[in-house]
Amino acid sequence: MPNRHTLDAVIIGAGVVGAACAYYAARAGLAVAVIDRGSVAGGTTGAGEGNLLVSDKEAGPELDLALLSTRLWRELNETLPPETEYEPKGGLVVAHDESARTALRDFVAAQRKAGVEAHEITPDRLHDLEPHLAPGLAGGFHYPQDAQVQPARAAAQLLWAARGSGAVIGLGEEVTGILTASDGRIRGVRTPRRDLASPAVVNATGTWGGDLARLAGTDLPILPRRGFVLVTEPLPRVVRHKVYAADYIADVASGSAALQSSAVVEGTPSGPVLIGATRERVGFDRSLSAAALRRLAAQARALFPVLADVHVMRTYHGFRPYLPDHLPVIGPDPRVPGLFHACGHEGAGIGLAPATGLLIAAALRGEQPALELRPFRPERFDQAGAAQ
């Protein structure tokens, strides 16, 4: 443990968001411990594709967060080991018809005002970017800022770098209680092994953020949103970018509990093609959905007919931390002094992790954050569970 009577903060959760919180807090000189009941990236992070996207976010607070994270991921790529597999491959969003292309053009116009770089691609130039795309598409937009990391490795490298700056890592250790003083302020956490004294606790437990909030005596309406990913056999680089149809953007923004899917297709440095992702709210049901997998496969083939005879080697799935307004909760919780939240990022947690970590580090130090935290405040759901 650090050579001091108490820590400055205990970060609960060793996924990529918790790791980023630890990284930036430790680099800022704070004494922090990261506690997780499982392993590094053992929850939602380990089931992710590693998307670092600006292309799917409408102008507003989440896009601002994504643009900040885009810059930070580039900086991290210069300092972290290459095992993160950072790849600035760019994204390509395609339109099936003129109506979709017009809607996408309007969407992009607002993004550009916020700082997104996007280039319209005419139908005759689509195959310059992706030679194996299906014919007959109406065009699209190239997003050079989109990128990818290997999520579990990225989380691990952030954690080890945080440890190099003094952070303590406690894996396989479940937090069973939040310790508070008589005035309700946080004074630490309890695990089966020990009590850790700290004036601050950071809830970076992702899909389980609502459970941790209740343990601390408050509430967050986080629900799991299941998603499946297909992994093909290793292939030559038949897909160069992150490629998806424009209707994926509507799926991301939808609040429907029903099964939705719009394939995002991308190659990887090791050869397999990743095909994601479905969305549905079915609690923590881990059973395989043949319907979801069939829909994904069909949509991927529609974009890339070359995949029709390719073997799927495996599938995996995880649970995104869904909140009703599709924005994460980031920052101090005024209902429980000393409690901070960094969760609820849904499917964007890997991409948004560095900005979240930077904002949490500033909040822990009482400094001015790089972005306005008000849109992400945890108490915005207090009235009848609706975002305020």
SSE series: EHEEHEHEHEEHEEEEEHEEHEEHEEEH
- Classify the beta-strand content into a percent band: 15-25%
Total beta-strand segments: 19
Question: Overall pLDDT, averaged?
Answer: 93
Read across the widest sheet, the strand sequence of neighbours is 5-6-4-14-15-16-13-17
| Most strands sheet | 8 strands, mixed
Spatial gap, N to C terminus: 41 Å
Radius of gyration: 21 Å
Global structural class:
alpha/beta
Report what the structure shows:
The structure is a single chain. 28% of the residues lie in helices and 24% in strands. The protein is built from 9 helices and 19 strands. Strands 5-6-4-14-15-16-13-17 form an 8-stranded mixed β-sheet. Strand 18 (329-332) and strand 19 (339-343) form a beta hairpin. Helix 2 (61-79) crosses helix 9. The radius of gyration is 21 Å and the shape is globular. The model is unreliable at 384-388 (pLDDT under 50).
Which helices and strands appear, and what pairs or packs with what?
Elements: E1 9-12, H1 16-27, E2 32-36, E3 51-52, H2 61-79, E4 91-94, H3 98-114, E5 119-121, H4 126-129, E6 140-143, E7 147-148, H5 151-164, E8 168-171, E9 177-180, E10 186-190, E11 195-197, E12 201-203, H6 209-215, E13 223-232, E14 242-245, H7 247-253, E15 260-267, E16 273-279, H8 290-303, E17 312-322, E18 329-332, E19 339-343, H9 349-364
Parallel strand pairs: 1-2, 1-12, 2-8, 4-14, 12-19
Antiparallel strand pairs: 3-7, 4-6, 5-6, 9-10, 10-11, 13-16, 13-17, 14-15, 15-16, 18-19
Helix pairs in contact: 1-5, 1-9, 2-9
